[in-house]
Fold Multidrug resistance protein MdtC.
Amino acid sequence: MFALFIERPVATTLLSVASTLCGVLTFMLLPIAPLPQVDCPVIKVTASLPGASPETMAFSVATPLERALGQIAGINEMTSNSSLGNTNITLEFELDKNINSAAREVQAALNAAQSMLPTGMPSRPRYYKTNPADAPIMILTLTSSSYLIGEIYGIASTLLAQRLDQIAGVSEVSVSGGSLPAVRIELNPTVLFNQGIALDAVREAINNANVRRPLGYLNDEQSRWQIKTNDELKTAADYQPIIIHSHNNAVVRLQDVANIKDSVQDIRTAGMTAGKPAIILVIRREAGANIIATVDRILAELPELRKMLPASIDLAIAQDITPTIRASMTEVERALTIAIGLVILVVFLFLRSGRATIIPAIVVPVSLIGSFSAMYLCGVSLNNLSLMALTVATGFVVDDAIVVIENIMRHIENGLTPHKAAIIGVSEVGFTVLSMSISLIAVFIPLFFMGGLVGRFFHEFAITLATAILISLFVSLTLTPMMCAYLLKESKKFSTYKIRGFGRLLLKIQQSYIVTLNWVLTHQRNVLLVLLATIGLNIYLYISIPKTFFPEQDTGRLLGYVRADQSISFQAMKTKMTRFMTQLDMDPSIDNVTGFIGGSRMNSGFIFIALKPLNKRKETANQVIVRLITQLANEPGANLFLIPEQDIRAGGRQATTSYQFTLLADDLDELRDWEPQVRKALAALPKLSDVNSDKEDKGTEMAITYDRDKMAQLGINVTKANNVLNDTFGQRQISTIYQPMNQYKVVMEVAPEYTQDTSTLDKMFVINKQGKPIPLSFFAKW
């Protein structure tokens, strides 16, 4: 069998060349990532009800959604977070759950739960196939000195985000730091009270003034005319003359009772970079996508995107994770190249033959390059672990070649021709090489079948190493003997150890080994005691050495999380966030700081920190964190948590620390009682630091108590009373403006200066069944 490859050198050479070419081609197709893809299948569900309290969101939105989603098979963990006007539900599935199948089941569950949700929701709940704990691959910022932040947000969400989302490998582009443009109507409750105009009457008048409905057309025997009216209002100026009330030929227009302006849907959100207001685009990749290729495609698209933007809007890259990945991959590739070079050098030193050294110098690269094809077919990415596996495989690959080469050279030294020596030599050791390779592969069989996150993590390592060994086995039994037959010279006295130079050193080593071996054989009891002591020492070291799933990396990126009291105002939170970011910007180890606040959680903010390259800073990421936490610990009323970004982050939840524990209870009050006890017990442990909890109390509330008996006597129901409160304080979206690129909202609430104390409640009234205004104070207390 082996003689077939020796007798047909051209066919054997072509086979090896084909394997190498396939490896080169598939190498360019392999996904590139810092580490194997080990993310759990995670789907995030979001729902909004503007103005609703966290309790309302939890009980009326989160609970029915959780009940429907909980029936899906394969859910490993389901967590929900309800805040002012928003609910976020994170579904983490088992590792073997197909994410697309899970998405279909989630959509079906959302459809089933729709009838149980409140009727006032502006849109249906949505889901995203994304992992909130996964680090973004790139962060972009938009700033301008002339455009309003709402206008920049509109451009970012309708133009940039959609174009970026179409790039292959991009999973999600989230836009933060602002909200869509909107017409905001800020009512004066004092004027409304004096005029006797109810808030629901204002809302109804606005809704009736801005409509978009089909009107039909006129036609005769020859032509047709589409009917078109000025029924749509587009700008704040269009809303000012709306008549909201008339009495005795006197009319009250909207501009008489409100300040109408072109603004944004949510004024309580902000983004910042380099001390300037900014809109932030956070880009995440699809699972398994080539990070470097995806980022390269984004970078190639940026010049075109800049051309589409107005000249006064600056598009900048705030964070890019690929430089560290490129550097680490280059380092591993260099280590692999050095390993191959050292192996060839060692072979030359021992074989003392240039022709014999050429053989492993060709066989090793052919085996390793051929492994790329198998990696591609098995879905393995090009990452630090797979390249490490190839580095480890280099020694195994050259072992197979050396066994074959040395046996063939032995026969040549005994007087056989290289051709006959190759046939006999490979036949003698063929089974030995086979058994060696199978034994090595057997060592990694447990990794193939290991379950859980660890098994997923090391699966690619085992596949890469096993395929490299198998390809090496084939090459060593085909290409290696063929090259020996045609490259090695016939020699009657062929010695691998010439008695000079390096050969003398080898002889001395051999003599020393013989002396040592003789001593060991004559002192067996002592050697056995040394062996037992060594085993005991290894056990002790194994127990005492620190253990972790994966060593903490310095990726050059930090994630900051700012948390303040739940009752903090947006203005106060923005001030604290600005102070943190200003101090971070001044740090000598930091290159760029970008952050945003607002949205679903008013008392929290996120900061993305890009450190300077390692050669331009004196501290590691952890040292920077320790120093910054100490410096920024004096900000009253707010805490800053900093964690180093890692290439591998398991789970579907974001965390402010390295480890997470979940405390569960059937009763919320019991959970609140136990949380501080558990937190204090953990904080007392000497090996733990910065112990915190994501539990938040209810915060300060304005409790309004209805007298239901009086409400019944006055002809008022709770729905009407709640609608008045929502119209007043809830940033209620009451109408829609349709534009070619997007849809914008009309938001109604009282002017901000009337929401700072309870005096506005004294001016509120509800229209009863008889059409009479009834002051809120008649049937409610606060």
About this structure: The first strand starts at residue 42 and ends at 48. The chain has 24 helices and 26 strands. Residues 20 and 366 are 6 Å apart (CA to CA).
